[in-house]
Amino acid sequence: MAVYQIPVLSSLGKRELAADLPQEVNPHLLWEVVRWQLAKRRRGTASTKTRGEVAYSSRKIYPQKHTGRARHGDIGAPIFVGGGTVFGPKPRDYSYTLPKKVRRAGLAMAVADRAKEGKLLLVEDFAGVNGKTKEFLAWAKAAGLDGSESVLLVAESELVRRAARNLPWVVTLAPQGLNVYDILRTERLVMDLKAWETFQERLGGKE
């Protein structure tokens, strides 16, 4: 573990908070966690019809013998155009289990990576933000966020999330929704202190 000095922004100015986070980032472990997340999100609704499910008669299309042609049964056989599919996809659940220890380590590494790059900002209060996009834009400009980088905003206040969610460069989450995939697909991570507290609890095994 390493001690990171993370900037904390409030209406009174900036200060720093010391936090213990992993020093080394394991790319393969992060890949494992992202793969697990995306597998859980797959709908798994792809479905094809077998020869018993296609809308054709099961009548034998012509006699077995004396036609000089190959032997065939019903026209819904897979060999015919429009017939059933052999071994096609059926609805399934793509999710699988991943140890909690690995998930916690991945989340800690993702946050540590943003802290190491200087892309992590903690916010004590979103002064003047009460649900309006223009209010959030004014706050973001004062905080040095101008939209040139994508931002993951993790905030407890629904008003703050509502004010930011219409901006194309902001992804908003509640504190409980902080995850590796969204951290890695955005360039900056902005969290309020409640989100930081929830993150610390998750690292302590209270999820």
TrEMBL record:
| Coiled-coil features, chain-numbered ranges | none
Does Iron appear among the keywords?
Answer: no
**What is a GO molecular function of this protein?**
structural constituent of ribosome
One GO cellular component this record assigns the protein to is: ribonucleoprotein complex
Q: Name one GO biological process term.
A: translation
Keywords, comma-separated and alphabetical: Ribonucleoprotein, Ribosomal protein, RNA-binding, rRNA-binding
| Assembly with partners or alone | Part of the 50S ribosomal subunit.
**NCBIfam families tied to this protein:** rplD_bact
What is this protein's function per UniProt?
A: Forms part of the polypeptide exit tunnel. One of the primary rRNA binding proteins, this protein initially binds near the 5'-end of the 23S rRNA. It is important during the early stages of 50S assembly. It makes multiple contacts with different domains of the 23S rRNA in the assembled 50S subunit and ribosome.
Q: Read off the HAMAP family from this record.
A: Ribosomal_uL4_B
What protein family does this chain belong to? Belongs to the universal ribosomal protein uL4 family.
Task: Please identify the protein, giving its name as recorded.
Answer: Large ribosomal subunit protein uL4
User: What organism is listed for this UniProt entry?
Assistant: Thermus arciformis
Q: What is the lineage of its organism?
A: Bacteria, Thermotogati, Deinococcota, Deinococci, Thermales
* Gene responsible for this protein: rplD
